[in-house]
Amino acid sequence: MNGDIVEVPFNGSMMIAQRFDDGEIYAALKPICENIGIAYNGQWERLKRTPWATVRIIRTVGADGKQRDMVAISRKTLTMWLATIDTNRLSDEQARHNVTVYQKEAAEALDKYFNEGGAIRVSDADSDEDIMARAVLVAQKTIKQKNQQIAEQQTRIVELEPKARFADAVAASDGTCLVGELAKMLRQNGMDIGQNRLFRLLQADGYLGKSGSNRNVPTQRAMDLGLFRIKETTVTHADGHTTVSRTPKVTGKGQRYFIDRYWGRAQPSLEAGA
């Protein structure tokens, strides 16, 4: 949702900008280009090809009272864009000087950020106390961000630990297992499922046949994925005729596949494609 139109100082003038609900300010690109004396169309085309550029459309009201949509760039994009402009293209002499000074300062800040761990902007008017206070604020923000990253990583590790133990158990197995054995492993690791329910789930999801001679036989799709092997056993009956019994065995790849697919389902759905 759009916010209020605001004016921000730039190169001795006031530029049109808009503050959005997320707090981000986007500055209209065309007035900035006109202010520093560089062709707008060329810069707009360049930004459209640039992966780090964030662009929005803002609606402004001109001096004639008519509403106009304008291309606007985020503060981060403005900061990077100014640092990459070819100053030889700037027709305004004062703007060329200001952007050159800015680019030198930006290069120094980037060098300190990447090689010394951070950069703090200071001026001759800043006292030691001002600089120290600014440094403390930057440090506090950095520590907060790092602590949040660590907490998110620890949460992720806790979530993945049971699955990792399960994957290790699969890797240590002899390769294939029966569907009932896979159901037992899933149940031991917190999934509410037994052999019959797992058979029905695999049928519903199209991995095993549902009826007739193909009941519980791996489908062509499952075989193409390498999820099963079929163990065939010849059975000789009392009257002398023989039949072939086909038993599906889940491959190591299949075990990992179904762990990824069904892990965390307390009550797995038996609807097709679930």
Characteristic terms for this protein:
alpha+beta; 2 domains; five-stranded antiparallel beta sheet; three-stranded antiparallel beta sheet
Describe this structure in words.
- By secondary structure, this protein is of the alpha+beta class.
- It folds into two domains: 5-116, no CATH class; 173-262, no CATH class.
- 48% of the residues lie in helices and 19% in strands.
- The protein is built from nine helices and eight strands.
- It has helices at residues 29-36, 40-48, 75-84, 93-116, 128-171, 179-188, 195-204, 220-224, 252-262; strands spanning 5-10, 13-19, 25-28, 55-61, 67-74, 177-178, 228-236, 242-250.
- The strands form two sheets. A five-stranded antiparallel beta sheet has the order 1-2-3-5-4. A three-stranded antiparallel beta sheet has the order 6-8-7.
- Strand 1 (5-10) and strand 2 (13-19) form a beta hairpin.
- Helix 1 crosses helix 2, helix 5 crosses helix 9 (252-262) and helix 6 crosses helix 7.
- The longest helix has 44 residues, at 128-171.
- It is elongated.
- The mean pLDDT is 79.
